[in-house]
Amino acid sequence: MDLPVDEWKAYVLQKWSLLPKSAQVAVSTAETLSEIFFHSSSFLQSEDEKFLKRLSQGYLVGKDPKAPCFYREEGNKKFQEKNYSEAAVLYSKGVSHSRPNTEDISLCYANRSAALFRLGQYETCLNDIIRALTHGYPERLRPKLLLRKAECLVTLRRLKEASQTISDLESNFTAKPSPAASPFQILQENLCCLKMKIQGKENLPETFPMTLTKDFEGVDLTEENEEISSASSSVCLCTDPLKGRCLIATKDIVPGELLVKEDAFVSVLNPGKMPPLPQGLESRWDTRVTNGDLYCHKCLQHTLAMVPCHGCSYAKYCSQECMQQAWELYHSIECSLGGLLLTLGVFCHVALRLTLLARFEDVHKVVRRICDEINNKDVCLPESKSLVETFNYCQGEREEIGEVVQTQIPGCNLNGKYENNYNAVFSLLAHTENHSPEHKFLCALSVSALCRQLEAASPPALTTGLKAAVTPELCADLNVWAVAMLRHLLQLQCNAQAITTIQHTGSKESMIADSGQVRLATGIFPVVSLLNHSCSPNTSVSFTGTVATIRAAQQIKKGQEIFHCYGPHESRMSGAERQQKLRSQYFFDCSCPACHCEEPRAAAGPRWEAFRCNSCRALLQGDDVLSCGNRACPESISRNHLASQVQDLQQQVEMGWKLLRNGKLEQAIMWLLRCREDAESFLSAEHAVVGEIEDHLARAYAALGDWKKSATHLQKSLQVVEVHHGSSSVEMGHELFKLAQVLFNGRGACLLFLLTDLKL
């Protein structure tokens, strides 16, 4: 979803192939972004726009007045099945298609409050009850809703408010007497029970774990850097003649130390797999759950209680505040373009949003710099007053030459400070000369089509709501902003950061839940972008909403560079694979210690795919026919035969997982133990399938409450994860957290295990 949909890409590439040779040469040899844009955009024809419009219409992003009733009924079905999470999502879809102050939106909010109540989300349930009442919830149905409100207040120990709500309900019953057999009689009985509950002041559940989590997420930098915003004082910004800008340790850094904590300057939610729906009445409304249904489009907070945009059905938020902020910053312009932006891809959306946010900074400077680019002048960077030390590399370590020189560092302000702002984003390299002519043509034509839609939707769109003093004439020409968007679109291939999260699956009623890392959004982090790549990095990155956190993954000596992994990690790819990936996406050859010292990988493959001899247990080696690594052992076997064995074993493991998911724990354990025995006969101890089996066994024993056995199997799974992903990987951190949970839950039974067996 980063790039445009396949249909538009194929269409544009075919158009490129049909261009006159002279036109292709003009785009290929253009030296500036403005030349690329003007040459390319001149070929955008009305039939191209019509084709793009047809693609965009495949996405249902407007409000359909018939949709709320459909989604409410679908949500009711899930509610009856006790699948309250999916019910809440479907009610949210109904809310998104409803207009404010209508019975439709009030009914969807009320039904969603019931699902949230069953999920134990009482504060959120209260908010939905208030929303339902605010939007005109029918008077005849209010007693049941108010009773739910009172129950929430009691559970939250807000007893005074609960008593007042109960008093209001009693007054309502007194004013409107009804037959004994009516639903009101049932409500009155529930009301009496609730009053007794208040008087008894029963013990209520604590929320300490959530509080602890929030406190941990709120950890800030101990001492912020005066020269680099969002960075600690343990690092400084330097330049290298080969690598450009980089971060260097100013002191010895210990593992786990917080180095950078930066909020994304811009982020756009990744909608996930969201192909356009086929035409037809039955498929008009989509019941599939995507990231857009679960995470706030502004702050990326997970929620089942979305607040919709009043103008479209696509944009959803965790609160009224996020919705209002998004509207003021960018969504007032994006709102009518939802289908087009989904068609053009996340990168194009990020580029537009970056340009829109430029309005809120020194727009005069931004426009001047872009105009200089259009007029073939060198883009002037702000003069920097900072002093930087020059270093050179020696076997992966930086040694100070000792000469301090004054130089201009791109992205710094007049005082030499590098900040999280548009100036820093603009300074990121676009690598224009490295992108293929076809890719530049695709990007330029997409930007041109987007700008024409912006102009048609609202000619002064880019000047609406400006906080800076800007005259309309300054921004009247959308070509200026188009060049800026094209620059950002090309920047993103090397500078975009995938924002990830751990997503949990499985209902609250299920004994076994699953989780995994998913890509949630694409963001731009100017400070994080300063970190250069290493296939064996000395930091790890994690995300909380739109905030990226960089921590030291190992000891870093004073003067050493701070490295981040761009994706190709030594534990995931061979050296050749990493180099190919880095050249194609980032346009450089990696010379990190991992690449410099790596020996050619054996033909047997990586350790997490290795086979071992059934006779002597040594690792097998070879290509089509594998032979035992032990010269004294004559064993040999076909790779195809082993691959078939792995496939059969994976099917058996999947059957064990299904038993586990269905709560048949003892059967699942017996089945998985047989799978493990089969695996040990021909797979290495670090094979990915072995790790999967051990993880399933750990889950099964945890569900039975046998925490010691669970921890034993989880530790074996950890060894496989470490080999596959690295000791400082997010995946390793996730597994360690699972182990910590197991040890905490069985703290009495696991204490001896922790002291004697655990070696981390």
What layout of secondary structure does this protein have?
Blueprint (H helix, E strand, L loop, with lengths): L5 H13 L2 H9 L3 H9 L4 H11 L10 H14 L3 H14 L5 H16 L3 H13 L7 H14 L3 H17 L7 H18 L7 H10 L17 E6 L3 E6 L8 E6 L2 E4 L21 H4 L12 E2 L7 E2 L2 H15 L3 H7 L1 H12 L5 H12 L12 E8 L2 E10 L15 H5 L10 H21 L14 H4 L2 H18 L1 E9 L8 E11 L7 E2 L5 E6 L2 E6 L10 E2 L10 H12 L6 H5 L22 E3 L2 E4 L7 E3 H23 L3 H16 L7 H17 L2 H19 L4 H16 L1 H10 L4
Parallel strand pairs: 11-14
Antiparallel strand pairs: 1-2, 3-13, 4-10, 5-6, 7-8, 9-10, 12-13, 15-16, 16-17
Helix pairs in contact: 1-19, 2-3, 3-19, 4-15, 5-6, 5-7, 6-7, 7-8, 8-9, 9-10, 9-11, 10-11, 16-21, 17-21, 19-21, 24-25, 24-26, 25-26, 26-27, 27-28, 27-29, 28-29
Task: Write structural notes for this entry.
Residues 233-567 form the SET domain. With 760 residues, the protein is mainly alpha-helical. Among the domains are: 232-264 and 525-573 and 580-598, Beta Complex (Beta-clip-like), CATH 2.170.270; 620-748, Tetratricopeptide repeat domain (Serine Threonine Protein Phosphatase 5, Tetratricopeptide repeat, Alpha Horseshoe), CATH 1.25.40.10. Helices cover 49% and strands 12% of the residues. The strands form seven sheets. It has a three-stranded antiparallel sheet with strand order 3-13-12, with no helix packed on it. Helix 5 (67-80) runs parallel beside helix 7. Mean pLDDT is 81; it is low at 201-216, 377-406, 459-476, 507-512 and 749-760.
